[in-house]
Design brief:
- With 491 residues, this protein is an alpha/beta fold.
- The chain folds into two domains: 8-324, Rossmann fold (3-Layer(aba) Sandwich), CATH 3.40.50.720; 345-488, 3-Layer(aba) Sandwich (Rossmann fold).
- The protein contains 18 helices and 17 strands.
- The chain is globular, with a radius of gyration of 24 Å.
C-alpha cells in the first residue's frame, strides 16, 4: 500500500509525553498535524508550543475515546494516523480502568478509519514491550513473536487483586491483539495497513504540560525520583532495571513507520537496550549531578539483564541505527576503550542556500529548499502564515564549513554541537527577497520582526566557542540563492 510521505497526520492523545514529541517531529518534517485531546484546556498547551507552525497544527476535542464513532470526524481527510492515546499508570483498582480505554480506544480509531478514513494510507499504533515480555527468573531475549499472555491470565484469575504491572501489561496486550484481530477480520475492506510499535520504558525531555515533578508521567516520574531523589537504595539501583528508548527516537520511529513501505503490517520493537538504575546514576554524576553514588561496587560488564529485546526488525525496517540519537551516543560510550577516533555530532536546524547537487526542477528540490522556494516565491503560504510560521536556520555553506572545522579542531572531539544562524519567520525572507528585487507579494505588511515571538531558539554558544563559525545573513543567503534560481530559470 502507498505510504504517507507528506500530507496531514492524525495524532490521538496529542497532549501526552510521547505524543507531543510525535507531533513536533511530524511538524518539523513538513507534515500537517491534527491532534486529538479530551478538553479545550488540554489543547491550550499544544497550541502555545507549536504556535509558530500556524494552521499546520489543528487540535480537535474527543472527550471519550471509548465511544462508538468517537473519531469519525477526526479521521476525515488525513493521510495517516498515529494512535498514542492509552492510559499508563499503576493506580488502577479495577483492571477495566486500564483495559477498557486501551482496547476500545484502539478499536474506535480503527472503526472510524475503516468507515470514514478514505484518505488514510497507514495507521501506527503505539503499543508497548509490556505486550511482548513476561516476567521470569531466567534471562531471556524477547522478539516480536512473543506475547504477554501471562498478564492476561493473572488479571482474569485475580481481577482487582492482580498486581498493578499485570493490569497495565494486560491492557496493552489486549489492545494490541484487538488491533490485529480487527485488521484480519476486515482485511478485504481496508485501504490502509497497520504498524504497531512496541517500546519499553520511554525516557527523555518532557515538552508536554507538567506543572511539577510529582505530576510527571509514570515512566519519567520513576526515572526522576530513582536517579535524583533517592527513592531506591543502593541494592535496588544496581539490581533493578529493564530496557529503554529515548522519547525523541521513539517519535522518529513513529514518523518512519508511516513513511517506510516495508513497515506495513509489522509489529516492531523499538528499544535502545537494557539498563540498571545504577547506569543512569553513574552517568548523571559524570554530568555533574550532586547525588549519592549508589552502589559503588556495581560493574555494568558483570550485571545480568533478565529482559532484553531483539531489535533486528527495527534496524532493518526503520533503519533507526542511522536516525536514533540514542544509538549514536551509546555506541561511542560503549566502545570508548577500543576507539582510535572520536566523534563529533553536528545538529543543524533548517538548511537553506544555493543548490549544487543534481536537481532537474523546482519540484525535485530537497525537502527544506522545496519548502523555502515555494513559501517565498510561489505563494504557498498566506500572509498570516508568513508572519507566524518559522523556525531556525543555517546557510548550507556555513554548515559545510562547520563539518570541515569539526574534523580540524581538537576541542570539538566528543561534542554535540548546534549549528544555527538564528530564528526566522517566513515574512523575514519575503521582506529581504523584495529588497533584492523579487517580484512577489508583500505578505503581512503589519509584521514587525522586533515584536514577533520565536518559540524555538537554539543556544549556539558551543559552536561559537569550539568552531569559531561565522554565519551568513538572510540577505547574503537570499542574494546568492536567487542568483542560482534565476540562472535555472525558476524565478
Amino acid at each position: 500500500m502507498p505510504t504517507a510521505t507528506s500530507g496531514k497526520v492524525l495524532v490521538t492523545g496529542a497532549n501526552g509525553f510521547i505524543a507531543l514529541w510525535v507531533v513536533r517531529t511530524l511538524l518539523e518534517q513538513g507534515y500537517a498535524v491534527r491532534g486529538t485531546v479530551r478538553s479545550e484546556g488540554k489543547a491550550r498547551h499544544l497550541k502555545e508550543v507549536f504556535a509558530s507552525y500556524g494552521d499546520k497544527l489543528e487540535v480537535v476535542i474527543v472527550e471519550d475515546i471509548t465511544k462508538a464513532g468517537a473519531f469519525d470526524e477526526a479521521v476525515k481527510g488525513v493521510d495517516a494516523i498515529e494512535h498514542t492515546a492509552s492510559p499508563f499508570h499503576f493506580k488502577a483498582d479495577d483492571p477495566d480502568e486500564l483495559i477498557v480505554p486501551a482496547v476500545h480506544g484502539t478499536t474506535r480509531v480503527l472503526e472510524s478509519a475503516l468507515a470514514y478514513g478514505t484518505a488514510v494510507k497507514r495507521i501506527v499504533v503505539t503499543s508497548s514491550c509490556a505486550s511482548v515480555m513476561e516476567a521470569q527468573e531466567a534471562p531471556r531475549v524477547f522478539s516480536e513473536v512473543d506475547w504477554n499472555n501471562a498478564a492476561i491470565a493473572e488479571v482474569r484469575e485475580k481481577g482487582r487483586a492482580a498486581t498493578q504491572p499485570a493490569k497495565y501489561r494486560a491492557s496493552k496486550t489486549l489492545a494490541e491483539k484487538a488491533a490485529w484481530e480487527f485488521v484480519e477480520k476486515n482485511k478485504d475492506k481496508l485501504t490502509w495497513d497497520l504498524v504497531v510499535l512496541n517500546p519499553p520504558y520511554v525516557f527523555g525531555p518532557t515538552i508536554h504540560e507538567v506543572s511539577a515533578a510529582e505530576a510527571l508521567n509514570e515512566s519519567m516520574h520513576d526515572w526522576f525520583y530513582s536517579i535524583f531523589k533517592g527513592s531506591k537504595n543502593a541494592k535496588q539501583l544496581s539490581t533493578i532495571g529493564s530496557s529503554w528508548v529515548d522519547v525523541r527516537d521513539l517519535a522518529e520511529a513513529h514518523v518512519l513507520a508511516i513513511k517506510r513501505p516495508e513497515a506495513g503490517g509489522e509489529r516492531i520493537i523499538v528499544s535502545e537496550g537494557p539498563w540498571k538504575w545504577q547506569d543512569w546514576v553513574n552517568v548523571a554524576r559524570e554530568l555533574g549531578a550532586d547525588i549519592p553514588a549508589g552502589d559503588e561496587s556495581y560493574d555494568p560488564a558483570k550485571t545480568t539483564h533478565y529482559i532484553v529485546f531483539d531489535t533486528t526488525k527495527a534496524g532493518k525496517l526503520l533503519d533507526l541505527k542511522d536516525h536514533g540519537k540514542g544509538g549514536r551516543r551509546k555506541f561511542a560510550e560503549k566502545n570508548k576503550d577500543k576507539l582510535a577516533w572520536d566523534l563529533v555530532v553536528l545538529n543543524p536546524p533548517y538548511v537553506f542556500g544555493p543548490t549544487i547537487h543534481e536537481v532537474g526542477a523546482a519540484e525535485a528540490l530537497n525537502e527544506s529548499m522545496h519548502d523555502w522556494f515555494h513559501s517565498i516565491f510561489k505563494g504557498s503560504k498566506n500572509a498570516k502564515q508568513l508572519s507566524t510560521i518559522g523556525s531556525s536556520w543555517v546557510d548550507v555553506r556555513d554548515l559545510a564549513e562547520a563539518h570541515v572545522l569539526a574534523i580540524k579542531r581538537p576541542e570539538a572531539g566528543g561534542e554535540r554541537i548546534i549549528v544555527s544562524e538564528g530564528p526566522w519567520k517566513w515574512q523575514d525572507w519575503v521582506n529581504v527577497a523584495r529588497e533584492l528585487g523579487a517580484d512577489i507579494p508583500a505578505g503581512d505588511e503589519s509584521y514587525d520582526p522586533a515584536k514577533t515571538t520565536h518559540y524555538i531558539v537554539y543556544d549556539t554558544t558551543k559552536a561559537g566557542k569550539l568552531l569559531d563559525l561565522k554565519y551568513r545573513s538572510i540577505k547574503e543567503c537570499l542574494a546568492d540563492t536567487m542568483q542560482d534560481l534565476k540562472a535555472r530559470g525558476w524565478i
